[in-house]
Amino acid sequence: MVKTMNKTRSAFENLAERINRFPQGAPPTELLFEILKILFTEREASLAAQLPIKPFTVEKAASIWKTDISTARKNLDALAAKALIVDLEMDGRKEYALPPPMAGFFEFSLMRTRNDIDQKTLAELFYRYMNVEEDFIRELFVEGETKMVKVFVNESVLPEERGVEILDYERASETIKTASHRGIGLCYCRHKMQHNGRACNAPLDICMTFGRTAASLIKNGFAREVGVSEGLDQLARAHDLNLVQCAENVRNDAAFICNCCGCCCEALIAARKFAFLRPVSTTNFMPDIERQKCSGCGTCVDVCPVEAMALVSANDPARPKAKVALLNGEICLGCGVCAKVCPSRSIAMLHRERRVITPASTAHRSVLMAIERGKLQDLIFDNRALFSHRALAAVLGVILKLPPVKQVMASRQMKSVFLDRLLERYTGSTE
């Protein structure tokens, strides 16, 4: 009996250790083990613990597991059917990837109503792991300069006559229009809060996934495929409900857009809880309040998801009780919800003084996060049996485009003569 328990724990310990190699990490606490035991069987945990972080083929999985290709494919497809891994179409061939816990298989587990797992117990464990213990949320949102999640500005509050320019990658609508696949699933955050008796009245069926990840979730029944028109309708619905669009923090091929409320959604809760640490990447816009027009009604205060708005005295001797809105620019996300609801039209969205830099792609963001969190070696040498010069070259290509300081950080982490020589060749120095 003791032997079996130790074996079980070992499988989940190995899986937890594997998961924690992702740049965003997941602290291996008892709550994490309980979560993994609901999502994975012992055998599935043992198999998943051996998989690389980077996308891989069925042949590579077969080699790792020391089994034949047919068996490996059956195992991989079974994991994909539970959204524990994603199966991706890459240039006409299928590849697989072990997603991080967030945004990843934690969310996938509550993106549909299902009977094969105890979702209520799972949701309660998620709440305790993220909202009570907080270590996971701190690692996810606070560690490092590069953030996993960014906010989209509400495009409707950017009047052209004010000369405000918005780039394509700053538009949620453009992400929807250009995605190869679009899926709609349940909002993980509100679904979790619903099981915990804490959900608001915002809709569940409103969060979107895109591209190859969406294709995998659609195929395996975790998301519903939609066209461009319905995707834009969902965005308009979210705007009408004053929800904030939180997305993968990349310029190209964002994998998700969540339509978030301040009360349920992990990113916005973190944005309030750790406000001055900037846990979420802001938009390139800021509200500008015209005090003379502000009626002091407090509507903007009520809808701000991160409590960046407050009412203060207007300091008007003729109206001693008069109030005006005041913005705390240090914690403002720049979502534009305040400008949208302002009845006096006294709030306009203007460019921030300094442009917010958004990573070009998921790979670019992952490398930046890995460097900042001391995990670059885990990202590159994540599975030594599968090490390839092609994979290393791809990561190094990103490193070589970084500022000198981040290049130095990467070099020191790797302690690699090869990397030092490359940096020296392309930059003139490693220091």
State the share of residues found in helices, binned by percent: 40-55%
- Strand tally: 12
Question: Structural class given helices, strands, pairing?
Answer: alpha+beta
Q: Which residues sit in consecutive blocks of at least 5 with pLDDT less than 50?
A: 1-6, 426-431
Biggest sheet descriptor = 6 strands, antiparallel
Question: What's the number of domains?
Answer: 4
Distance between the termini: 56 Å
- Rg, nearest Å: 23 Å
Please give a structural write-up.
The protein is α+β, with helices and mostly antiparallel strands and 431 residues long. It has four domains: 2-132, Arc Repressor Mutant, subunit A; 142-277, no CATH class; 285-351, Alpha-Beta Plaits (2-Layer Sandwich), CATH 3.30.70; 362-427. Helix content is 44%, strand content 13%. The chain contains 20 helices and twelve strands. It has helices at residues 2-19, 30-39, 42-48, 58-65, 69-81, 101-108, 119-132, 135-141, 172-178, 188-195, 211-219, 228-240, 266-273, 299-303, 337-341, 362-372, 376-380, 389-399, 404-414, 417-427; strands at residues 86-90, 93-97, 149-152, 182-186, 205-210, 224-225, 244-248, 256-260, 285-289, 309-313, 323-327, 347-351. Strands 3-7-8-5-4-6 form a six-stranded antiparallel β-sheet. It has a two-stranded antiparallel sheet with strand order 1-2. Strand 7 and strand 8 (256-260) form a beta hairpin. Helix 7 crosses helix 10. The chain is globular, with a radius of gyration of 23 Å. It starts with a helix and ends with a helix. The relative contact order is 0.11. Residues 1-6 and 426-431 have low confidence and may be disordered.
